[in-house]
Design the sequence.
């Protein structure tokens, strides 16, 4: 009985040399590159933005209802954990925004050269740092307590 006919092997031929390789590429096989990092982060920030959209919806409903509901949501948002979430959410927002523009440029056919891919990736990270810092500085100065 050959391996392909063997019920214990699930009907697959297991004596072939190609079965010594992984079935699909794994992250630990590759050297990390900025294009890999930006792709993974784009997907992760999309998930974070979805969670933040739920919080925004809760806040909008609480504003509409008013009273105790608004006070409860405002207490959550102004708590240090809520502020940390908003800070991380703003990083995710600016990253997803900037990397989305990068993808639109790729859709238009610009930026496929290796040097431009790396330069645009680093530009996205620089934009995220600058935009997040400016946003939180303005929010802290105008709203939060920079009196």
Sequence:
């Amino acid at each position: 009985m050959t391996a392909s006919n063997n019920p214990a092997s699930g009907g697959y031929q297991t004596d072939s040399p190609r079965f010594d390789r992984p079935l699909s590429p794994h992250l630990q096989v590759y050297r990390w590159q900025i294009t890999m990092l930006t792709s993974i982060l784009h997907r992760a920030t999309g998930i974070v933005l979805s969670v933040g959209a739920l919080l925004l919806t809760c806040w909008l409903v609480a504003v509409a209802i008013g009273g105790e509901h608004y006070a409860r949501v405002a207490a959550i948002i102004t708590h240090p954990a809520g502020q940390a979430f908003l800070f991380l959410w703003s990083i995710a927002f600016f990253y997803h925004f900037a990397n989305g523009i990068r993808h639109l440029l790729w859709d238009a056919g610009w930026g496929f050269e290796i040097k431009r891919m790396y330069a645009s990736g680093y530009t996205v990270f620089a934009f995220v740092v600058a935009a997040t810092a400016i946003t939180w500085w303005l929010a802290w100065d105008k709203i939060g307590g920079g009196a």
About this structure: The domain at 30-144 is CATH 1.20.1300.10 (3 helical TM bundles of succinate and fumarate reductases). The chain has one domain: 30-144. The helical segments are 34-65, 67-78, 80-107, 114-144.
